TrEMBL record:
It catalyses: Release of an N-terminal amino acid, Xaa-|-Yaa- from a peptide, amide or arylamide. Xaa is preferably Ala, but may be most amino acids including Pro (slow action). When a terminal hydrophobic residue is followed by a prolyl residue, the two may be released as an intact Xaa-Pro dipeptide. The keyword Cell membrane does not apply. Pfam families: Peptidase_M1, Peptidase_M1_N. Residues 60-230 form the Aminopeptidase N-like N-terminal domain. Its cofactor is Zn(2+). Residues 317-462 form the Peptidase M1 membrane alanine aminopeptidase domain. This is Aminopeptidase N. It comes from Actinomadura parmotrematis. CDD domains: M1_APN_like (cd09603). The keyword Signal applies. InterPro entries: Aminopeptidase_N-like_N (IPR045357), Aminopeptidase_N-like_N_sf (IPR042097), Peptidase_M1 (IPR001930), Peptidase_M1_aminopeptidases (IPR050344), Peptidase_M1_dom (IPR014782), Peptidase_M4/M1_CTD_sf (IPR027268). SUPFAM superfamilies: Leukotriene A4 hydrolase N-terminal domain, Metalloproteases ('zincins'), catalytic domain. Belongs to the peptidase M1 family. It is an enzyme of class 3 (hydrolase).
Length: 472
């Protein structure tokens, strides 16, 4: 997402959530066969202890969603294909707010309980480590967004004629049961049924539309593994434009009718951005691209995989930012949320580089402007003294630190290792970790390998101090 200066809170709030303890696996129940035990109810991320779950790995989500915009109700079935990573007597999915009607595992009825966002499922038979299994959850209700202090409302957002979804960081579980952490990426099929005349857009590629009895069902397939927070739907009325990038990537751009005047610009700017980014970052990581401009204005856009959602009229810089995330964040994803600068610092730096290579300020000039801002600048504390860019805290992930100080970290690195090594590093990073998960440590190791320089002092100064670096 783009930096949200509007929602910045200054200094004081800082780090509180960093102290969360890891969720441990609960003890095995007496009824569990020997060796079979419940999977952990959390994925082990200190920022979001309840997000994600242990004991299995999802391969594919098949989501059938029947949404009635007028009543704002969802009737849904999720079929989740997964593989057990331990002998499992029980496992959790994340699901917020909605009502569960039934759960089966491998076709047999399974017991389940709800507690907070945990949907704990006990299959009729234990699941053997290494074996594939299928969970079917029938559920529904009125999906509701959730809220964070630094970004406001997110998750499932109702609009006058439909809804759209922006789920970073933990909103996916507001609309489907999931292993809701970027570490467990999976492919997706969506079959979304809406009243005839309403359209549905999503990640990936369209798989056809059928209309029957006053309802239409739209199929979309995301065939490249995707983090749950990047799963996206846009339901409503849209004007659609199709095309191709210079390298032949199909482009689907859609805007709400009241934003029709933005369609051509968003579409053309998307192609310009991808054409340029493929030269700088390497081959585009997904099978299609585009963008969706929703009809309501919110200061929120998100790099939903293959096709970002724009909650405001995006300029070229915002489009460059959200599409840079297709490489940095979507294809190469964080293993833990504290490394969010690997998403936001890189997407911010992509904007600076775009300016540099299109007749604007150089990235170094942008760096210097920020570095020399006086202490009276309203966001001074956020950038320099409030928190670490490499560990900003769960509640402060989307403040300026990860974005601007993250981008400045890359400029400092470029200055140290030179252009040749720096641009080689960007391409190696996206290629080596394509569709994978990474940590800052991985990036430092690769930067040192590519440049043959010791860089721990530089990264420490920029990412892990709460002061303005003076030497690096
Ligand atoms: Zn972003």
């Amino acid at each position: 997402m783009p930096p949200r200066i509007r929602t910045l809170r200054l200094a004081a709030a800082a780090l509180t959530a960093g102290a969360c303890v890891l969720a441990a696996a609960p003890p095995a129940t007496a009824a569990a066969p020997h060796g079979f035990r419940p999977g952990a109810p959390g994925g082990g991320d200190p920022y979001f202890p309840a997000e994600g779950n242990g004991g299995y790995d999802v391969g594919h989500y098949d989501l059938s969603l029947d949404y009635a915009p007028a009543a704002d109700t969802l009737a849904a079935t999720a079929v989740i294909s997964a593989r057990a990573t331990q002998d499992l007597s029980r496992f959790d999915l994340d699901l917020k707010q909605l009502t569960v009607k039934s759960v089966t595992v491998n076709g047999r009825k399974a017991k389940y309980t709800r507690k907070g966002q945990e949907l704990a499922i006990t299959p009729a038979k234990g699941l053997h480590r290494g074996k594939k299994f299928t969970v079917k959850v029938v559920y529904g209700g009125t999906p509701k967004p959730i809220e964070r202090p630094d970004i406001g409302k997110f998750g499932w957002i109702k609009t006058p004629d439909g809804a759209y979804v922006v789920s970073e960081p933990d909103g996916a579980s507001t609309w489907f049961p999931s292993n809701d952490h970027p570490q467990d990426k999976a492919t997706y099929t969506y079959k979304v049924t809406v009243p005839k005349g309403t359209q549905v857009l999503s990640n990936g590629e369209p798989g056809g539309t059928t209309t029957k009895g006053g309802k239409s069902t739209f199929v979309w397939n995301e065939r490249t593994p995707m983090a749950s927070y990047l799963a996206m739907l846009a339901i409503g009325k849209f004007q659609v434009k199709k095309g191709k990038t210079a390298s032949g990537v199909p482009v689907i751009t859609a805007v709400a009718p009241n934003r029709a005047d933005e369609l051509t610009t968003i579409h053309d700017d998307t192609i310009k951005a991808i054409d340029w980014e493929e030269k700088v970052f390497g081959k585009y990581p997904f099978q299609s691209t585009g963008g969706i401009r929703v009809g309501v204005d919110v200061e929120f856009s998100l790099e939903t995989q293959s096709r970002p959602i724009y909650g405001f009229e995006p300029d070229q810089g915002v489009i460059v930012h959200e599409l840079a995330h297709q490489w940095f964040g979507d294809s190469v994803s964080v293993k833990r949320w504290k490394d969010i600068w690997l998403n936001e610092g890189f997407a911010t730096y992509a904007e600076w580089l775009w300016d540099e290579q299109h007749g604007g300020r150089t990235a170094k000039q942008t760096f210097d402007l920020l570095y020399n801002e006086p202490t009276t600048w309203p966001y001074y504390a956020d950038l320099w003294t409030a928190r670490q860019a490499g560990n900003p805290g769960a509640d402060e992930m989307f403040t300026l630190t990860a974005y601007y100080r993250g981008g400045m970290t890359l400029q400092a690195l470029r200055g140290r290792i030179g252009d040749k090594a720096f641009f080689a590093l960007l391409k190696q990073w996206t290629k080596l970790h394509r569709n994978g998960n990474v940590t800052t440590k991985d990036f430092i190791a690769l930067a040192e390998k590519v440049s043959h320089k010791q860089l721990d002092g530089l990264f420490h100064a920029w990412l892990y101090t709460k002061s303005k670096p003076t030497t690096w």
